[in-house]
Design a protein that fits this description.
17 strands; 12 helices; alpha/beta; Metallo-beta-lactamase, Chain A; about 375 residues
Amino acid sequence: MGREPHRIPFRYCEPAFFGGLLDDPVLFLRVRPEGRALLFDCGQIAHLAKRVVKPVDAVFISQTHMDHIMGVPTLVRHHHASSKPLDLYGPAGIIDRVDHLLHGYDWNLCEPYWFTLKVHEVLPDRIVHAAFPGPEAFVRRDGGEEPRPDRIIWSSRYVAVEAEIMDHKLPCLAFRATERPAFSVDPARLEERGLVAGDWIRDLKTRVWKGQGSDPVIVTRRDGDTVREETVADPAALYEALRGEQSVASLGYVTDVGWTEGNIAKLSAFLPGLTLLCAECTFLAADVAKARVSYHLCSADLNDLAARLAPHFLLPMHLSKSYLYHTVDLYSELTPPAGCSVIQLPNHIVPPPVTVEDVQGLMRL
C-alpha cells in the first residue's frame, strides 16, 4: 500500500488501497479465511480487475458525492451474472441515489440468474432496506426497516463493520472494521474450574464458531485423582468463562468530514486504538480556511486526530489535486504520535487517460 512494504498485523484481513494520494479513495479489505472482500467507497474503479471486484460481498459508501459512488454501475456490470446478492451500505439518501444510477440504463435483456443488489440506508436509529433484483430489471423493492441498537451494520464470522454518522454539510459515514477475536482458551481458567484439556475443546470451538449454542458439549473434569466426563448444556457460557484475553486488529476509515466539535467528539469516541487509520487529508495546513469552508480536513487536523486516536499505522488519502506538483509537502507536515507509522501512497494508481496521440499510431487503413 505504499512505496515500502508494511506488514500490518491483521489476523484475518488484508487491506489494500486501490487509489493513489490524488485518486478517488477506494479501500479494499480481503477477509482471507472466507475468500471474500469488503469495499469502502466506490468512486472511479474501472482500473480494478474483475477478479478483484467479484469477491466483494459488501460495499460501504461514506457519502454520495460523485467521487465516492460513481463506480456502482461498474460493480453491477461485474456482478450482474452472479446469483450471490451484493450488499451496499450508505448514509441517508443512498437508496434513492442507487435507484437513479441503475435506471439511467436499459435492462430489457435481463436474465433470471442475475444478482440482486441490496441497499441499506444507515440512519441514527434504524436501517432502511431496499432490494434491486436483477431478474426484474433492477426495479426497486422496498424492504422495510429495522432498529439500529448499536453501531454494527454488517458482520461475518471474522470481521464486523460499524458506522458512525458524521457531518459533511450532509450526512456521511465513518467506518470501523474490527476483526473478531480468535478462539482462545486460557489454561489458567481451565485449571481453576478443574477442567482437563482434550478433544472436547475442539468440539467447544465448533459449537461457538458455528453458533450451535443449544448443542451440549461433553467436557473432561478432574475430581481429585479421578477424571470424569460431564455434559455442559450451554457451550457459549462455558467458552465465555474460559476465554483467553487477546487484542484484536481494527481499521478506521474517515473521509469527507468537517473539523467540527461534533465530528471531533464522535471520532474520538468511535475510533480509539486502531491498528490502521485511513483518513482524508484534503488540504495542507496553510489552506485551513479552504478546509473549513468545504468541510474537509487539513494536515493540522489530521495530526490532531492521530494524536487523539493513536493508531499504529496512518494512511493519509484524498489530497486535493491542486497539490499535484508538491504532494511531498503533505508528508513533511504530518507529525504522527510515537508508535505510529505513516504509509505513503504514490500520486496516482489509476492509469492516465488516453489521448488522441496515443491511439493514432494504432489506426491503419
